[in-house]
């Protein structure tokens, strides 16, 4: 008898739980108030016990830190404030020994104004090959004193800055979609393409398992640099968003990733249009993209169901990702505690004007965590989400670091509130983030009330967010139904979401997730054992803003 064909192994990233680690705010090993790789290495057992499959590191490269490391001056090394390349090698090896894979952040849209290429471009002058790697243009108006076009920086202010030429005269302008310290690369330049292909190979060869591609839809620009109407932040119709030529880049990146076994590419793409998002995960392109429509969605059963359906329908065979928070958006506990529970990073001041009901937001964030971790695909957990940290909205102005704050002249508070260093232990700041003899305070101040949310206070507390995340991740890992695979919606009353996860071809049994987003308690099915719930049941009923995982018989 011929033996049955062996099914191909499921790639690890299809159903992985991936922890987003913002190094600057995770753990400070040397006491300078800034997180570092030594701090990460010391806490790897914490991450292993949490039950995650991979870590995505925000940029750890040498950087003047004009945008917290998203302004890179050397793509092949580690910033001294975080450690050394040898530390990164050791960290990768130690993580692998724990069964944890590593994803690094690559920023191809722009570099730092201290990158050797930009310094060479400044020195070489107009018309040089060095300048063709960026977007240098003469200005408009009398003596070229006006920017080449009317594009606005995503961080506020014009997207162009004028340089002084070597002879001291006012010179050309260069394009920066973000801060002036982040000049945009010109992806029509073969140098740029070859350089980044080499950067990819460099990190894959060091054992990195995946790459997160920053601002992935912005790389290619209409070379005629046309004016746009209005000064609004870039919508999908913008001459630098989501252009056809960007897909050619990712096709060659995919070929590189595939030439190293098991490597993965995920794109950061803020397109609201699911069909255009889906193009990036078409055949031969990126493996996955972040699901920001899900992140931005209100805590509302109908709206969430629509996003979930769209995600699954349009992913053309590519696995879905689910994400509730990251280092650019308000923390989920705060978002769900406002009267408007949706989010949009272009309207942060509007959201910050609402009062926050923290107990309500926390209850909903717990329910959302179980909903999210039950959906088919991979899930991203932003550090501190597992502790139930809230958005710190009252950072004193003089301590704010995000360039968005300064560039909008304080109109937009920026992203510091979700980047505050983690509380590990103890009753007061720095809550074990830095060693006891630290020379400096944490780079952003921690709220005193986080004493109740430290890792030590949360561990062993059955009601803590940490216990919920640990339990959920443990069950998710040990249940073949969860992660990658099919799901089937179940009929429910209004405001309730319920779906079954069963391995393909297995009709019965399986796992059901029921999320109650309505105002009234709902009954649970009779043929079910509750595996985990985000809050206590009351008289066998699932209360509002609560999710349960059920084993069906
Ligand atoms: C991405 C990053 C963000 C950064 C920006 C510019 O959106 O997530 O943190 O500021 O790109 O690199
Ligand atoms: Ca440090």
List keywords for this structure.
single chain, 553 residues, alpha/beta, 8-stranded parallel β-sheet, 5-stranded antiparallel β-sheet, 18 strands, globular, binds alpha-D-glucopyranose, binds calcium ion
Q: What's the count of strands?
A: 18
Strand neighbour order, sheet with most strands: 9-8-7-3-2-1-11-10
Q: What ligand molecules are bound, each kind once?
A: alpha-D-glucopyranose, calcium ion
What spatial form do the alpha-carbon principal axes imply? globular
Structural class: alpha/beta
**Biggest pleated-sheet summary:** 8 strands, parallel
Helix content bin: 25-40%
Distance between the termini: 35 Å
| β-strand amount | 5-15%
Question: What this model shows, in words?
Answer:
The protein has 553 residues and is α/β, with parallel strands linked by helices. 25% of the residues lie in helices and 14% in strands. The chain contains 15 helices and 18 strands. It has an eight-stranded parallel β-sheet with strand order 9-8-7-3-2-1-11-10. A five-stranded antiparallel β-sheet has the order 12-13-14-18-16. Strands 4-6-5 form a three-stranded antiparallel β-sheet, with no helix packed on it. Helix 5 runs parallel beside helix 6 and helix 12 packs parallel to helix 15. It is globular. It starts with 16 loop residues before the first strand and ends with a strand. The model has no long low-confidence stretch (mean pLDDT 95). The chain binds alpha-D-glucopyranose (GLC) and calcium ion. Calcium ion binds next to loops. The site of alpha-D-glucopyranose (GLC) has 9 residues, from loops.
